[in-house]
Specification:
Number of helices of chain A: 8
Largest interface: A-B, 56 and 56 residues
Oligomer: homodimer
Helix content of chain A: 40-55%
Order of helices and strands of chain A: EHHEEHHEHEHHEH
Number of strands of chain A: 6
Distance between the termini of chain A: 29 Å
Amino acid sequence: MSEIILNLPVWVQDFVEDSAGTFPAIEDRMRFVIELSRQNIEHKTGGPFGAGIFEQKNGRLVAAGVNLVESSNCSIAHAEIMAIAFAQKTLGNYNMGAEKGAVFELVTSTEPCVMCLGAVCWSGVKAVVCGARDEDARRIGFDEGPKPQNWVQALAGRGISVVQDVLREQADEVLTEYYERGGLIYNPVR
Amino acid sequence: MSEIILNLPVWVQDFVEDSAGTFPAIEDRMRFVIELSRQNIEHKTGGPFGAGIFEQKNGRLVAAGVNLVESSNCSIAHAEIMAIAFAQKTLGNYNMGAEKGAVFELVTSTEPCVMCLGAVCWSGVKAVVCGARDEDARRIGFDEGPKPQNWVQALAGRGISVVQDVLREQADEVLTEYYERGGLIYNPVR
């Protein structure tokens, strides 16, 4: 009752350990998080979403996350939230923007929902790189929530850059695959 | 590295155990979460924010939360997030809206930031009760993030009711007290 424990599945730990560890190009980073999203549905550990925190200048992977809402019984456990929480634990700082000489980037297989948009603001990351768009997630029944229309500009106004549509098609393919397999589309409003 | 552990401080557990456990009136519930916010600054365990999940019909306390950003080194650990995660753990369900015959309510000492607004949407709670307003938090330097202007209507459109200004002055007093004591105003953008 007095503690919340959020575990990354063992396969994520193995996948991270077996990876290059450093992903110089933005497409390399996106390919990595899309593969997380794909494996998350293969392993049936959650929804079709993957994310990672990378050091921007060299592409060093700091932390990975996948959607664990069902398996952890916690609606907070989106991929981006997991990646941010693990990165802050690894860095020993609740503000990744406070690290001298390092800029951290969130790479996510689908654009953040409103909760994760807020989490980005408080995390200290200075860049967000997105694969699939909100409308790709909505097309298969997911809900991104009451996000401000101008969320990209809102982040820019806070010194957080956004890059959209990196390998969007490949990211979207995983969403479609999840839908076609009959994966749970978690949506408390319906 | 492979798990995130978020602990409620021992004083919160004691405070919950020593409480009535059931809070029939909305003001009773608010008084409880304001007292959490006040004790959180007394105990120096985090920012001036408290929250709780209650069963709406009878006021039974399901879970309590306080802001633990600093003490847990995790920017996700807002009071509302902690309360939601603990309630879902207690209920054994990531969707509090799926519980037959029970409606759950989030009571929070200050209106939710954009991250917690999103977390509300995915939690399955059907009501949000707020003490201090966004502008009260902003006045002492906190940032509520890029929330949609019409967030109350946006939640209503999702079947989530919002009650504002319950004991607002008392809730705001704790914000002011925190500011006057020189409490950390965490804001990664500045």
